[in-house]
Fold each of these.
Amino acid sequence: MRTIPGALREAAERWPDHAAIVDGDTTLTFAQLHERVRRVAAGFGLEDGDRVCLWAPNSWRWEVAALAVTYAGGVLVPLNTRYTGHEVVDVVSRTNPRLIVIEDGFLGRTQSSELADAATEAGLVLPSVLVTSQLPDAEPVAFPEVAAADLADILFTSGTTGRSKGAMTAHGQSVEAARIWGELGEVTSDDRYLVVNPFFHSFGYKAGILVSLLYGATLYPQAVFDVNAAIDTIERDRITVLPGAPTIFNALLEQDRSTRDLSSLRFAVTGAAMVPVALVERMQSELSFDLVLTAFGMTECVMGAMGRRGDPPELVAGTTGRVVPGMEMRVDAPTGEDGELLFRGPLVMLGYLDDPIATAEAIDADGWLHTGDVARVDPEGNLKITDRLKDMYVAGGFNVYPAEIEQVIARLDGVVESAVVGLPDERLGEVGRAYVVRRAGAEITEEDVIAHCKERLANFKIPRSVRFVDVLPRNLAGKVLKTQLRSGGGL
């Protein structure tokens, strides 16, 4: 298996004058990207294994900063741009980074102030904080040799305990996942890739930046999805590759495209929510995609299953494809019946940061990763996700874990308990609803609950609605019956 710095060096040697990334007025060839990364890596002054938190939106600077961290032998810790300062401080306190790189002013916020205020409230002394517009520029030095088995990144994913967990992945695992994704997507250096998926997510980072390094595709990052800007970019730059959640393609299809030329589009990967057959058909007929695939992955295993060329629309929409090369997939049930989905193989994470108990719960003694998803596999090996053992739901392509929201709501004065569920939403796939039990005499309103969540949670986690109930429905063991809450019954 290769390393991330090795992939960058090879790309610079193979396609030195080919554009690696086009971001507004900035274009970097692979040779220029390599040189810029080396100079920033030297300026970071990291020691082998140092961690760097990166809190910024998609841009050429994000790619340079991220690659510089691993080039210098460090460990990248990407942070969700929608995180509040409190959420960032929680990750910082657990990863002990040498440096925090942020973009100030994104989405009209002042991230530097949010971070400082939250750190003061938590009693945390922050390490050096650097803004992306002031990345260092130093003479390259001799960098440490990085091995494929070395830790490359820690991506945080919320857990059912209500606190995020840091999934640790090695260089070779990240690069191999990107290689498989690019191979099944038939990506080449002729491709121009609009990256709507955030770089802080494995979809944007590993199936985006790393795929570009391996196959020579040119990236066009978009900091925030804007359908009109996306259409302009597709038409002007002849974009060929556009992965994303179904909401992205629904938005494109809802626009008036009668005078626009989007015929360059050839490859899409979608998922993260139920995909209607009609959407796949319209993507192929109205958006000109030659290859539309669905896939299954998670932070703990970036690539598990993916479709293949030739899959009919019904199969693309109804399944997430077959297990990817080199991996094993198993459902704890007879073929065609529902059971928990498990994966084993070289792409399964190394484990959770400083959490051996959670690691042992996720990865059993035989090396199988327990995904927490209920699935079935047909005789041809196609995977269909049918339910979730965990309470997670997907809002606009982002995983949302109700336990994390419930813990925040519990801190609101006057709340006895709450339960959060995901409900179907035409635009976002699913949105959250909180069922709240108030203390006697408490006058908490729906607006109070939502405002409290906005102070502590990223926007995609904030419930869209709140319902007040006298009691939460429970089974005989005392477990909240969330299926009943989702259906609205028994209240």
Amino acid sequence: MKIKINRHLFEETSHSPAVIDIVGENMVGEVIDFCFIANPYYPTEDMMREMVAKIPSIIKSYPSSNPRLAQLSLAKVLHVNPDHLIIGNGATELITLIQHELIDDIAIPVPTFSEYLEKLKQTDNAKLYELSKDENYQLRLSDFASWIDGHQITSALIINPGNPTGQFIPATDMLSFLKRMTHLKMILVDESFLDFSGIENASLMSYLEDFPNLMIVRSMSKHCGVPGLRLGYCCSSNPNFLVRIRQLLPVWNINTIAELFLTMLEKTDREYRISVKKIVQDMSLLYLNLVKIPGFKVYPTGSNFIMLKVTCGLTAQEIQIKLLEDYGLYVRDCSNKVGLDQYHIRLASQGSEKDMILINALEELAKEKLD
């Protein structure tokens, strides 16, 4: 059965429309969302049951007016100073404040997560560093540093692993960049996908006090699989950064369900780490199967998603629509990302069983076009 979709929604936002909006409430269960970059194994079923059981009482209560209580819960699993943390209503709330209030201009490698460009597109604050397609859109930090200094830019953004490229940058390379660029006002590092790299001690959080110009931001939607809770955080040792952002955040900027979830992190940390290991295994299998399919160029990845270039004669939009209407599979068309052409898609692992459904569909579509 062909699925009817609301195509016009793809033109109305730089982000991916929600599946329920595209196909309607009655058909949402018929679609597998590979556009959704998040942990499919966490929260656990036990955590879900506990939250559901407590909803009737907690939605009748105000969230805490003391943000430090939530910071303490999160700091226990991150192993950081809670005073260095700020929790936001999604990472996008914090990204917006950081960009508007703490930077004068910022070097942004493209392609990138569109929110980093969206709020700055009407100003000259965003200085775009276009990654080379001949180098598979890989960010070379030494070249990036030279370009920043050559253009006298005062702040820099690095997403690690990159979105949508999936490029993972080792901590040693990141530290070399930080040491070279201590003169910058801010180095904003987005580590939203870092846990999926499969590399231990990849985060820069333990180096915050060594680099006062370092600001780390993470979306909990991604690594914890809870986009609906709107949770994200930033972390820095710079008191000026922290004071300014805290002054701008409203009281009760996170809700009671989100607060409850934060209190559950420490006791379920083992389950979380098991979920990450499962995703790393799924990604390895997904990558190995994708590279076997003629008609697609598969970029290397260090995250829970993969970017592909469509080389079978279809555009990314055509692939996206065919997968949705004919197979009930939703992937990200990256055509609207600055720095990419109309032939790139991004897909995130949704577990090995669902991943195989997508692999078979891509094989069929490519075979039809190439035969």
Amino acid sequence: MRTYDAVVVGGGPAGSTAASELAARGYDTLLLDRGREIKPCGGAVPPQLLADFDVPESMLVANVATARIISPRRRNVDIPVGRGYVGMVDREHFDEWLRERARANGAERRVGFFKRIEREADGSMRIHITDGKSRGGVEEVIRARMLIGADGALSQVARQAVPGGDQMKHVFAYHEVIAAPEGQTFDVGDAYGAQRADVYYDGDLSPDFYAWVFPHGTTASVGTGSLQQGFKLRDAVGRLRAATGLDQCQTIRREGAPIPLHPLKKWDNGRDVILAGDAAGVVAPASGEGIFYAMTGGRLAAAAVHEALTTGDARALRSARRAFMRDHGQVFWVLGIMQRFWYSTDARRERFVAICRDPDVQQLTFDAYMRKRLVRAKPAAHMRIFFKNIAHLTGLAPA
């Protein structure tokens, strides 16, 4: 029976990053990925991701210079990114590049499914997996000193091995990848920009999140998400495409998946299992941004596993969540409050878009996005934002 130092379940940005870093440290690492599936994702990444994780700019399929915020009444606010940019990646190719980097660093890549964990008499871990692209494939048993669950919002690793891992709350996301209208025989006018990300705050398109049109070079992503059961995401995307003229574009593929709402309270079992990425719940509320946070979580999980294996102290696994929440917990808290309040009714969405016209808000937003921290702007700017928020909350400011 093969024994690995670490088995990583899930070959998305979190799992691939964790496997790559552990293999680069010399650990015998298995990266187990289901293959074929592509997560529905707008694909936005900040420049900080390229710098932190040594990702070449050639992986970007588009650079976004402007974010257009669109209210239920179709009032637009164009927010310039400023001196930076928002990069766009195609998850089909980006995720595969990350998996191949893990393999190049020494990780073993296999296509298969995680089934369950069993314990030997001495407490060591046996992992049952199936080989191939089907859950019904040939079952095999392997040993591992450590297991990293990076297998998505419905993580089987989390459900089986981590206390509270079966209580993940999530929204459902759905998008359609279409041929970009640029160069087509029809004209969609100003409804699409090759360097502009459009975000729709409209209860008809999402009752509690937002809908989007994001450029991806020769393709574009048109999608939406919602926590509300019974809301028909595919119909909402159809309405958005019809309203913008993008229904004339060829549909290349359709994808849907659950997206976590907030980080789990525990990421490890205190012994030999730790979570990363969507399995740990690290998708930013309000914005839905997940790639940077997934890769950050994967790196922290790998560091925690390394420490646990080196010292023999499983308490080291706790360090991943502590470090993540220290650096990003405040951002997640603020964004969560914002989503619960401003995304609840169309009247509030109108006021939220009105607030986005403010230059102080725009600068603070993109400064925080670029640096992945809540930035300390000049105190006067914070005071101006505070009083403008109060004015909108009380209805004193026009929507």
Amino acid sequence: MSLRWLAAAACLVLARAAVSQGAGDISVRVTNADAAPIRGARVEVVGVDLVASAGADGRAVLRLATGQHRLLVTALGYVPAELHVELPRQANGTLAVVLQRTALSLVGVTVTASPTARALGEVAAPVSTMDARALERSLASSLAATLSRQAGVTVRSQGPAASMPIIRGLTGDRIVVLQDGQRAADLAATASDHGITVDPLAARGIEVVRGPAALLYGS
């Protein structure tokens, strides 16, 4: 027997085995409301790791075993649709699916420079808060000295009274000091020999705002 006859016999055996198991092909043609094929539509067998994509003619072919199957048809920009298929009754048949257009709903993406995921509010408004208990532990003679232990804060000092906080390397008029929402009326931001007039002993809490959120309080 030649190799050609052996190959033909092997194909015949495989075909008979497939028929005995009751497997069959299901063709799904996906179109839109204008009867135009939807290329790339995804046809998935629910509960089974079996997926097919529609070609240029909107047709996707799946080979399914005997039984009832639920198909989920999805495409970007269209409402998903479900189909129920029963084999072998619908074997080698073609199912037509018409998907309706819908508005795209995309999930926002937040890009951060932190090693772990953080909420958008924390990224845009990094704030260090000192409550009354924290003030008791860190209280000093001036506001700048009181904040000197906060992350990213150091002190520019020309004496115990003439001190100004440095936040992330910025000082002078690049730092805004507010008391009860109003700017401190002193010369600390314009002259290095003047200190901030805000008394830390009278404070019930202090907030240090860094980054873009600081623009809410001034340029």
